[in-house]
Amino acid sequence: MLQITTKPLKRVEVITVKGRVDSSTAPEFERALMAALESGHHQIVLDLEDVDYMSSAGLRAMVSALKAARKGNGDLRLSNPSNRVSEVLQLAGLTSIFGVYPSQVDAVGSF
Amino acid sequence: MVKRVRRRKMTLPGRYECIAQAARCCAEAARDAGLDDHTVFHVEIAVDEACTNIIRHAYGGEDVGTIEVACHTQGDDFVVTLHDHGRPFDPQAVLPPQIGTDLDQTSIGGLGLYFMRKLMDEVRFEFDPVKGNTLIMIKHANQHHQAEENSAGHT
């Protein structure tokens, strides 16, 4: 099960994800990220606190969205990834390309 | 030391939505075998990535064929075996992901296979034109515990 909620703020779109992101749910995850970008929001905070599982399919969606956000002079920043998400990010070496913040407030404030 | 667990085997349809069930089944067996939470998570990810690759690359899409997943203990090893009847592929031909600080140069194709190799101690592919494709992934419990002890000894 995957739950995705979006909250538009003044300068940033906050996307909060809960549940499992794998090859079955990654297309829905990617659609939500791309929908935010296509609606003109290129400054995105992705709150991953309640994502209890993420496979490479989820990481692939995040990298695609990050590339699209940067192309629009924006960024996709991560807030408070769970331990398991942090581990797969580190394993893939993606902590070098994503801005990772300890809380949603910190991530929003970074823009 | 792993605890001996009964062999678990399941056949799942080649659909992405069925993968979580197989990955959780193997994770549960790994937990029953006495592997720690961290290692159990590694087994779950490796099975997930292996099944995803079979559907995507061996079968070329969903609902083309089935995947047989089995796991058991053998001595101090936890062994996962996956079997399919899709196209064989050459694991040597899969380029590792290119990830660095430069986003333009970043390519994360091949990440699934990379995860399998990083998270399991042995990953072997066997291709037989009659029997189909077999993937064997092994976690050595002793090696893992030794590494943890060494790491603890350095802190």
Which helices and strands occur, and which strands form pairs?
The complex is a heterodimer of chains A (111) and B (155).
Chain A: E1 2-8, E2 13-21, H1 26-38, E3 43-54, H2 56-71, E4 75-79, H3 83-92, E5 99-101, H4 104-109
Parallel strand pairs in A: 2-3, 3-4, 4-5
Antiparallel strand pairs in A: 1-2
Chain B: E1 8-13, H1 19-32, H2 37-58, E2 66-74, E3 77-84, H3 111-119, E4 122-128, E5 132-140, H4 141-153
Helix pairs in contact in B: 1-2, 2-3
Notable traits:
heterodimer, A: 111 residues, alpha/beta, five-stranded mixed sheet, 5 strands, 41% helix, 32% strand, B: 155 residues, alpha+beta, five-stranded antiparallel sheet
Produce a short descriptive summary.
The complex is a heterodimer of chains A (111) and B (155). Chain A has helices at 26-38, 56-71, 83-92, 104-109; strands at 2-8, 13-21, 43-54, 75-79, 99-101.
Explain the overall architecture.
- The complex is a heterodimer of chains A (111) and B (155).
- Chain A is of the alpha/beta class and 111 residues long.
- In chain A, 41% of the residues lie in helices and 32% in strands.
- Chain A contains 4 helices and 5 strands.
- In chain A, strand 1 (2-8) and strand 2 (13-21) form a beta hairpin.
- The mean pLDDT of chain A is 96.
- Chain B is 37% helix and 25% strand.
- Chain B contains 4 helices and 5 strands, in the order E-H-H-E-E-H-E-E-H.
- Chain B has helices at 19-32, 37-58, 111-119, 141-153; strands spanning 8-13, 66-74, 77-84, 122-128, 132-140.
- In chain B, strands 1-2-3-5-4 form a 5-stranded antiparallel beta sheet.
- In chain B, helix 1 (19-32) packs antiparallel against helix 2 (37-58) and helix 2 runs antiparallel to helix 3.
- Chains A and B meet through helix 2 and helix 3 of A and helix 2 and helix 3 of B.
